[in-house]
């Protein structure tokens, strides 16, 4: 089992809901769920903290937390499906809506305020100052705003 599966299995063995587990480790339910579903990069210190926060002893938690994350094709397919079902950024007719997964709220950028490449860069600069913004927010917003303005982003 990879870390995310171990975390989910341990939470279930403890009889905790996602909301209860999130409260124990001081995260919102969405932020905790992202960690169980491998939508958030979780490094060793946080892995250890999550497992111990749920009540696992140090030795067992350290052994699980140090395991490298495995990414097989089926895991990538599940990730892509999840990104469509539960996005970091949504687009509607008038706006781009970024989902603040830590606080379960939304941040709206009106399309009327995104009229050029310079505007996109200005919004990205603004977003990078927000503690809750994840690289996935920036990546998806950049792609959606570029498509909206019909700007081609050339890969490096």
Polypeptide structure, described:
The protein is mainly alpha-helical and 156 residues long. The chain has two domains: 3-83, Orthogonal Bundle (434 Repressor (Amino-terminal Domain)); 89-149, no CATH class. It is 54% helix and 10% strand. It is built from eight helices and three strands; from the N terminus they run ααααααβββαα. Strands 1-2-3 form a three-stranded antiparallel sheet, covered by helices on one side. It is elongated and about 55 Å long.
Question: Helices and strands in order, then pairings?
Answer:
Blueprint: H1 3-13, H2 18-24, H3 29-36, H4 44-53, H5 58-65, H6 73-85, E1 89-91, E2 95-100, E3 105-110, H7 117-128, H8 135-149
Antiparallel strand pairs: 1-2, 2-3
Helix pairs in contact: 2-3, 4-5, 7-8
Per the CATH scheme, the topology name of the largest domain is 434 Repressor (Amino-terminal Domain)
> What is the CATH architecture term of the largest domain?
Orthogonal Bundle
The main β sheet shows up as: 3 strands, antiparallel
What does the overall shape look like? elongated
Number of strands: 3
Gyration radius, in Å: 18 Å
CATH C-level class of the largest domain is Mainly Alpha
Ranges where pLDDT stays below 50 over 5 or more residues in a row are none
Cross-sheet strand order for the largest sheet: 1-2-3
The rounded distance between the terminal residues' Cα atoms is 35 Å
Provide a compact summary of the structure.
The protein is mainly alpha-helical and 156 residues long. The protein has helices at residues 3-13, 18-24, 29-36, 44-53, 58-65, 73-85, 117-128, 135-149; strands at residues 89-91, 95-100, 105-110.
